[in-house]
Write the structure tokens for this entry.
Amino acid sequence: MSPFLASLFLVLYALMVYGLPAEHGSVRDDQLVEPSWEVAPYPGAAPITLNGTVEQVYAKLLEINPNYDEDFKDSEPELEPTRSLKKRKDTLVCDGEHSADTTRIDQGIKYLRKVKGSPQLSPWACSRVSCSWYSAIIWCNDSPYSKTLPSFNNIADGAQVIRDGCNENGYVKGWLDHSDRWRAIVQNADC
């Protein structure tokens, strides 16, 4: 085999192993990108970009605007969890390496529903959007294009489906593949 072909093969193999999100199940830390959130700190304000998990972003929003919860309490109706997911052909798999604490996942879902804005993720990337007490919610874009979801409720809904469908004695692990090429994952993580 020529040196060029051997090099090309190694580069393509490295991209497959490290450059793309895990095909199924758990996602390793080295496969994650830090999430960026476009959020308005005040009603009617221009969105700003904040980085980190939903817990970190929410803390920063409260730092910027201590009245954030009060200011946005009536801005979006509370969606019935999973309502928008029932009609689609999504695939739920209750599997993975390590389980997360269901109570901590419930808290992460609640945080995701509090933050107003539209999550964005680059192509073929995964991002840990919530992490508390070794329990993580991860969002993956399984598409060759950047993806923007209508709201963080979409990720919360995915995590809720996993939580409800894969909960076993207070612990949960699994993923939900969405037909429009993104995934929600619930798993144990180092946080």
Remarks:
- The two ends are 45 Å apart (CA to CA).
- Residues 102 and 167 are 7 Å apart (CA to CA).
- The longest strand covers residues 126-132.
- The first helix runs from residue 3 to 19.
